[in-house]
Specification:
The complex is a heterodimer of chains A (359) and B (551). Chain A has 359 residues and is α+β, with helices and mostly antiparallel strands. Chain A has helices spanning 3-27, 40-48, 61-74, 86-92, 98-126, 216-222; strands at 131-133, 136-144, 147-156, 160-162, 171-173, 176-185, 192-204, 207-215, 231-237, 243-250, 259-265, 272-280, 289-297, 303-310, 319-325, 331-336, 345-346. The two termini of chain A are 37 Å apart. In chain B, strands 1, 2, 3, 4, 5, 6, 7, 9 and 13 form a nine-stranded mixed sheet that branches. Mean pLDDT of chain B is 78; it is low at 1-31, 159-186 and 366-374. The chains are: A alpha+beta (359), B alpha+beta (551).
Chain lengths: 359, 551
Amino acid sequence: MNEGTSMRARRSRAFEVFVVTITMCAAHGGLAGCHAPLSNDDILFLMSLPRDLEVDIPTNAASTRALTRANLYAHRMTTHALLDTKQSLDEEMRPLATYYLDAKQGAERINQDILSPLEVIDRISEVEPTFREDDQRTWGPIPAASGSMLLSVERVRTATVFEGTSTSTAVSVDEFFRYSIIAAPRGAETWTPILWGVFAPVEAPDQGLGVLYVDFSAIRLVDPDSADEGVYITAYDTRPQQRTLEVLWSLRTLADPDVAYRYHRDDIGGRGEFVFVNEVDVDQRGKRETVTTVARWLALGPGRADVIISDGDLGPFVGWARECWDAAFLRTYFESNLPDTDETFGHITDCPTPFVDGP
Amino acid sequence: MKARRFASLVLTASASLAVMSAGGAVRAEAATVRHYAILVANNQGGAGTVDLRYAEADARKLAQVLREIGGYRDRDIVTLVGAGRDEVLRALDALEERIRGEADATSAGSSSSLLFYYSGHAKQGHLRLGSTQLSMAEIRRRLSTSKARVRLGILDSCESGAITREKGGRRGKSFLLDVDDRDTAKGLILISSSSADESSQESDEIGGSFFTHYLTSGLRGDADASGDQRITLGEVYAYAYHKTVNTTASTRSGPQHPSFSYDLEGQGDLVLTDLSQGTSGIFFPPRLAGDYMVFDLDRDQVALEISKREGEARRLALPVGHYVVKRRRQDHLEMARFTISRPDDHYEVDESKMAKVAFEDDYAKGIVLRSELESKRPRLGLSAIAVYQSFLSGATRRELFAPIFLVGVSGEISALLGTSLTLDFELLVGGRRDRTLALQSLELSYDFFEAQAALSITWSKSVGPVALAAGPRLAGLYMRRSFPNNEVLSAHPQDHFGLSPGLGASATWFLTDARNLSVEGIGRLGCLPFSVDDNRTLFYAEVGLAVGWRL
């Protein structure tokens, strides 16, 4: 996105906020929706809302180029005429890091999925609360595509131990925040929760442990155009040194999730890990196999992916594949026991040093 | 010619009037008599004295009367203002030389008169002329030995006080009573403004010493008890004596009794001023009665006073100029402006043409009172202000309101309702960018803006060129905090409006005599009830400077 486009986008966004604000003011008869008191509590409530729950897999110019090429492959546009540098031709001599791209594309899809509810929270909370109490802020009702939504945040002053994600250090907090968005279809009087969660600030008002539930099926009550379904659960730890995101997504029940992933980033070393588990009918023989992908990378991009395919039609067979890549996201090592895959490439010692050993 | 001597005699006014009016006036020779005068005045009396305010003005005032209606020529009046001992003695010598020259030129001897007038400090028998001293005995000796036929010495010497100042310091015998060689004093009259053990006083209200004020008022005609348009020494002394005693009776220093001593040969009294020669002035017709005062607008002083009795016409001399005549009633003043534009012009007082004026609107009160009146006249002022505001609590500064500079303008109406109260209105704005809000362990960058509209009422008191003021203040504070660099909070600028009562104090230095231009030091304490998130009262202080201009 160039600067001009970015500026227009910001202006457009500002205009939207202005319109929503005016709407809120008008809906609530004046100052209630317009006046933002000079409140530090307001800041705490805003900071407690979930945001930035995205999987951030490293990218750079080389990565972008690689992804572009991947897209070209996907569209069967393999002509080299579109790749106008000799470097690209040289890079073509080595295959792309397939599983890195899988992880990257999977992360982008996940980000897209979580982006929608987080955007709803951002949009609603951009205007001023319509209701304030010492330990509660309420925004709305906000008009939605086919109904209304209400965002509420409550501060619970109770000593509680939070465990957060599976790898988070459990902490004891004196207070935490409980938030929810409820929605009602147009004309209906019944409000249904579409999103809810808790957040316990630990090191700072915006750093702590939280859990977010999103019911995509309920979202369709007020947004019929929404294509998503199922329930999405995220446990997150936003502390810089333990930044972790664990997600379960199920179309059916959470006990049997369709997709599970875990994302962890070490802010200090810049190392990251993305574990992605889903059930896919890999061999097209009717049953869904469990595909587990563990991708790890260093701050500058070099990394390793380990894929394990099991269950489904495979029976006792467990398929595996290992791949390493360099900072240009080009394959440096590949090996697999799966049939119909690429030939072994390079050697395990060509992997980044920390990742020579398996996960 | 029978000589009369009243050695060491201090007469009461009535006694002196009776004695001195016994014969005819001796100014029959006025046409041939040369009058010389040396008027000495010094506001400063050296170490241990407080500067007087009106001594020098008194000398000029008397000189004006002598020149105008006393028959003195300009060149025969020597006015020494602020002069020291040597300068005074040289002037006396020079004048005496002229008198001797005139006496030698006539076979009949001198027909001249010599007036020595002094206004200033005196202490322990000496006139205090700045840092120098001149003994009263020396003055007396020189007057005694002068060749002038009549020698008149008038000493208005006192120490100064606060509002009504005392002049002269030594509470001892008047030098007039110390005269021990009066045998040699022929044709000598000595008058002091106070008797032996009293102080003389000057008054801010009349803009001069009581004694000289009444002396000049009397000479201008109010002392003309006989109604012959000629003011004699006896008349003016009696008048000045009564007025001075009566007026000073209620002052803090107590009554002041003028005294005199004379040794004058010949019949009759000495005529000092003559109003019969068509001089300009003010005329009070017979129907008027009461106490009137005439204020000289050009010289910024009280020109004369008159206690007018019904049935007698009074004419008092005034030089060309602009005046105000006023009469005090129980609850208001009656005032009229008038101008004397020619030397033979007369203004006749007509009560029907006098305007009714409230006391606080008196526009002719005397030098100091005029300035006081000026300070009591509602004045509009405009100032440019810069203040530094800081909340007293460190937590408040970190988490809510950062210290900032505010700049703005202030308008004031001083002397509200004629009192020392000033109504002040201020508009201030200020702010700081990129401050850090420390919220728990979260540090947020923010911009802070404040606008302030305040109304205050202050009571002020002038101390020299400085006016001290203090009073309550009510400010409306609008504060805005924005987070332009924060992704989450950039859409959430916060604002607060609150009423903030407080107290303010200031010290204003007036840079001009007209008290127009000023520099003001400001200090304030305010409190801000703040019920956001929690109920609490926040306190802040402001210090600053203002540069103001009063209309």
